[in-house]
Amino acid sequence: MKHRWIGKVEPDPVPADELATLARLVMPGIDTSQLRPMTGGFRNWNYRVDSASGPRVLRVYAKGDRSALKERRLAELVAPEVLTPKVLEIHEVDDRTVAVREFAEGTALHELMETPGALNRDVADCVGRTLAAIHRLEFDAYGDLDAELNLTEQWDLRGAGIVAYVRRMLTDGGADERLGPELADELLAMLDRRADLLEAWRERPVLVHGDFGPTNLVLGPDGSVSVLDWEFGCSAVPALDFGNLLRPPLADDLEFVHGLAAGYQAAGGRLPENWRRLALLADVMAWVTFAARPIVQHDLVLADARDRIQHTILEFSSDRSEP
Questions:
Q1: Is the same domain home to 159 and 29?
Q2: Beta bridge partners of 89
Q3: Are 233 and 210 a contacting pair, CB within 8 Å?
Q4: Burial of 36 (0-12, 13-18, 19+ CB in 10 A)
Q5: Which of 14, 80, 99, 309 lies in disulfide reach of 59, CB 3.0 to 4.6 Å?
Q6: Residue 295 — very low, low, confident or very high, per pLDDT cuts 50/70/90?
Q7: pLDDT higher at 219 or 11
Q8: If you average pLDDT over residues 49-69, what whole number do you get?
Q9: Rounded Cα gap, residues 278 and 200, in angstroms
């Protein structure tokens, strides 16, 4: 669904004079007039620039964002099995972090979604295999990762822990006011009954991309898939990445869904019974997190959050015990 936000929800652009200064400091000699903004960045900014060594991406982080080092380490960690652009340089310029990375040739999946049939079973199979390769990387516990990929905060991803996290986002984070108190209460009531269903997919802690969606996946000319932007990488459960990916419209594309599952399982990934519904249930954590961020108050984001939360509540509102 985040593809709907392109051109509407991105942060305010870096002022042109500041961008030119940053670019000259990081890539001396480049023609700053050739910097071309790239779509899909909802927290940081990416610009394509042509250099003597070929196309590069100038990645400008929001002030105070220090995730560049983590992104570089994760890119290095997954590189043997997952295509991801290499981070070439990282610079600290006053209160900004700026990185230079390789450019991923190809077409982003959110652009392919505009062409009927472009996201065929072969593409889905490759996406599934790529995701399985990411999830093969294991950690000792669940939690966020620092620049050295050490756990900075351990998470409780049992049912009770998920309910506690959502409750904290609703109350301390202010998401209840943005979503509406009635919807917040309905969400908590549903999770009190249903969050334990995710135990079926709570296995070893694995690497999770954290933003594994069409805006961060690029289909190359050879049919390969590159994965971009790892700032939300963490140690968690596979359901979170599947929930992110299988938002509308991909959730309703059965050919894509079946190809995704086939590729994931062929590459060694495990999918529990009713995995699609479990992915939907896990994704409410992401939508509540969106609503809890003070900087994310755009009406479109909140409308999508309400829609997906309401849809999930309805999906799990029956009295049946199975997922």
A1: no
A2: 100
A3: yes
A4: exposed
A5: 99
A6: low
A7: 219
A8: 90
A9: 9
